[in-house]
Amino acid sequence: MPNTLYDALIAPHHSNQYPLFRLKDKTDWTYQNLIQAAGRYASLLESIGTKPGDRVAVQVQKSVEAVALYIGCVQQGCVFLPLNTAYTPTEVEYFIGDAKPALFVCDESAETKLTPIAETNNCKVLTLNSDGAGTLSQQAQSLPVKLDSQARSEDDLAAILYTSGTTGRSKGAMLSHGNLLSNAITLHKYWQFTNKDVLLHGLPIYHTHGLFVATNTILLAGGSCIFLPSFNTDDFIEYLPQSTTMMGVPTFYTRLLSDDRLNKDLVSHMRLFISGSAPLLAETHVEFESRTGQMILERYGMTETNMNTSNPYDGERRAGTVGFELPGVEARVVDPESREEKPADEIGVLEVRGDNVFKGYWQMPEKTAQEFTSDGFFITGDLAKRDSDGYLHIVGRDKDLIISGGFNIYPKEIELLLDDQPGVLESAVVAAPHTDFGEGVVAILVAQSKSHDNNSQTSIDIESIKAAASEQLAKFKQPKEYVIVESLPRNSMGKVQKNVLREQVKDTFLL
Ligand code: AMP
């Protein structure tokens, strides 16, 4: 019976002996290994009575077995629900209570704490450790390898991914088989993946980037992955010569750049470097090109929509932009009030529509309805502008917008100026309460280190930065306060956590 994702990603490989996952200090996994492990997990899901549509929540370390569990869920028609490994038991309790999974898979070390939470919600618990051991594999071992799959149409759910929830509770984004497959097909073609590709994979697999963008694209292409537990500069320097492509968050690139071993010779054979999940500084793009001769391809997406835009594969990859709409995706920048499309170079709210866009938030029909326009566009919550050549620029989240004395301030505009100042490595701009204007700008700065080997930092001359700001920015946009920190708080995908910074400066009353 047809199963949209399984038939496209897995069934064509049923007799494929090619290495799929190349592992550090372990035997590689071929396509066959994945199919067999997934087929046993599918049998296990059947034997414990899970039915198509049942959720399987998974909070485990990155492993090939965890990928096989994702595939086994797809095969058995279950909805895969990966959870960030950093979530505490209290947070996990919310997700289990909300999603009501039939099965929860966790690391053995968390079993004692998490079992009571699962049992209260009538959810069975199995374990899977980073080395593949645990009760999941033990129980699956003696079961037959299933090679058929449950019927699942394009509209059936394949996964629920909870958004990172920096404001309020996280929401479960429902992704269908059709959402995931359409995006994998698009990316496979647009980025020209083939079975010759070897993708360097150091991303977590509880997030759309490492799980769907990387894994689904490679499965569709029939290529290989060098599958590392996480990012580590030494490992990446070691494995880059064996790779053809790399997907990373911007921090991967800044860390590689801070290592002198990154040079043209190391990567001259590479076909493609892709960055996403957080803004790549234009300077990083430029520095990477001058050091390696390679232009990073920046793309933009989100949990709810998969990938929406990309810089071109052939053609100019413009630093500081996220390129153009991918084939099959429509994007528009609109005025938040009138909902009219904005002219070139004007900032508005970014809305997207296409087969890639999710089915809504799990059990939140009202919230879902609020986030879609009457003509079916999803309101991303990102502020963007389109330049006169059609390239889209993401200028921040709309909730990061600062309103001072009734004027809108886009943090990105100020951050770009601050980043350009001598001695500044990077910056973040957030609002603090202002007695007169409601909100005022606070600039948070990180100093450049003196050299790659020496972690000491250069000093920042606040007075000259103030002078530059007053020359180039209208008064209401000029930072009222400057704070120097060692580093910006980031989440596991490299996104600066502005909510954390806002919290830190909230008692800084500005006059
Ligand atoms: P997530 O749902 O965790 O993937 O986060 C999605 C959000 O990350 C988007 O709504 C953007 O705010 C941000 N994002 C992703 N890719 C980029 C990019 N290339 N440039 C700027 N922001 C990005």
Task: Give your account of this protein's structure.
With 511 residues, the protein is of the alpha/beta class. 31% of the residues lie in helices and 24% in strands. It has 16 helices and 24 strands. It has helices spanning 4-9, 31-47, 64-76, 89-99, 111-120, 135-141, 177-190, 208-221, 233-239, 250-257, 264-267, 282-292, 365-371, 411-419, 462-472, 498-505; strands spanning 19-23, 29-30, 55-59, 79-82, 103-106, 124-127, 157-162, 172-176, 198-201, 224-227, 245-248, 272-275, 297-302, 306-310, 324-325, 329-334, 348-354, 378-386, 392-397, 402-404, 407-409, 424-434, 438-447, 481-485. Helix 2 (31-47) crosses helix 3 (64-76), helix 2 (31-47) crosses helix 6 and helix 10 packs across helix 12 (282-292). The longest helix has 17 residues, at 31-47. The mean pLDDT is 94. Adenosine monophosphate (AMP) binds next to strand 13, strand 18 and strand 19.
